[in-house]
Amino acid sequence: MSESPVSGDHGELDDVREFLRGSLPFNELDDELLNQALGQLHIAYHPHGERFDVHSPNPGLRILRSGAVDIRDTDNKLLDRLGEGESFHIGGLNADRGDVLALVIEDALVYRLPDEAYQELRRANRSFDRHFSTQRSRRLRRAARYQPEPNTMLEPVRTVMSRDLLTVAPDASVQRVAMAMADRRVSSAFVVEGEALLGIVTDRDLRTRVLAAGRDVQSPVREVMTPDPESIDAGQSLFATTLLMTQRSYHHLPVLEDGELAGIVTTSDLILARRDDPVYLVQHISRQTSAAGIQELVSGMADLMVHWVNGGMPAQQVSQILTAISDAVAVRLITLAEEELGPAPAPWAWLAFGSQARAEQLLGADQDNGIVIDDSVADEDLGWYRELATRVCDGLAACGYKYCPGGVMATTDAWRQRLGAWQDTVRGWARTPTNDAVMRVSIFFDIRALHGEFALAGELQKVMLSQAQSNSIFQAALAANALDSRPPLGIFRRFVVDRDGEHRASLDIKKRGVLPVTEIARLHALAHGLPEVNTEARLTAMAKAGHMTMMDSRNLSDALHYVQRVRMQHQCEQVLAGDKPDNYVNPRSLPRLAREQLRDAFTIIDEAQSAVRQRYRAGMG
Q: By three-state DSSP, how is residue 533 classified?
């Protein structure tokens, strides 16, 4: 097909320039290099059915202005499908994939950058070069992790830790240690012997383990210290430090450099670093005496999420923070209820299910929770747990965590059972995987204990894993569920959106993008008996155990992170506009580059679903 140089007309050049600025990877070029490329472009029309291979005339980089092209191998297997704004270089593809060809599947208008000019741009701009030397998933990974501005939460903990450490010998008396802490005006002391860190003693330890217990103040400090305290490396981020201290309810955390004690970080240090850090919220949540007080503290979470997202925090960290806050709310409501109701009649645990269990919550999350009780509890004592469940679930609702429409809450008898009854329920779901059972599994099999006897949750998970791992029919039912929500891509990788109703021209990015990945990760993890619950942790564990390639694991993880980022940004825009956050995104509202990256993410998810269909086809019949 004959081609001609792009016109020198200013109007046309401006149009082509703007087109390239919105296309990967030309957006990486400065004005000089972009104009250099413009001056060498040719344009041609290519009809449906035309092919390009290594023997085609006029080699170079071809950029689709309109139309669509399939990239196929010699066995006619579809490797990729390209649309408007995407580009390909047959020579480069062949070097990477073996013999491939490009087939025009929809009449196309194509800009061609001659091979010499294309190679010159690759030499002149590293980002431009990297786009073509790495796979689509690597480009998607950079987009998902892009951070527009520095974020304090990503600074190393060494920037806020204190190096003014008080160290004492293990045989020093409690009184001497307390006097030294008072003289130095510090709230903790490290118990060391030689170079070894044996333990830590804090103001709280002196109050609870010495004064309140009536212990002799001449006792050696080794008897009241916390032995072998958990620590964190000085290079770890404030986010990682905050998350660890939040989850473990630590107020003091030793910091190591090169394996040696170098400093200490306290909750006060983190609060001073940024008052919008979750440790600030969590610490104050733990001090509230009513649901109303907690509600007031968490009422500004939407604004905090906007701050974190706009500050460049990765999507997975934002969801972990939001989950840590909801965990703290639930735990505080539980302890308030326990204070009013008195001690539990028998050991028990409060369970989080679904996105909270996976540490993947966003705004507007429903409650998904339950209670598991030790089998020793007497029937007449079960009312204690019912009353506690009512108080906690009502408190969560008052704090903005909506009642579950399906009743998956500890207030429902079926989700508040003895351990043995829970285990029988799981076995029943596995033996008869009805649609209702599979729906419940998709919530319940993501399980994490928040409070109480954690071992009860562990015993329950053991039965869950053994039932799932040994039952191919059950796995097939889970596979069918994982394939139920397909990524919203139609022919030529066009977005499939709602055509009418309240969400016309939009797609449900949670249902069509997030849930398929979580369903796939859960299916694979259960089928191989892996205990991880967080989606990314499941994908990583699958790769480490050899049940999934590292490339597939990372691709799916990157796709999830990018979809979640788009979802969060959409919700942030709604918060700023004063609207109620939802999951319905209009693809046309996204910048062109974001649309292309979202297509890449959905394509990866679609490929993962195809692999599920092949892997579990026998059990599906």
A: coil
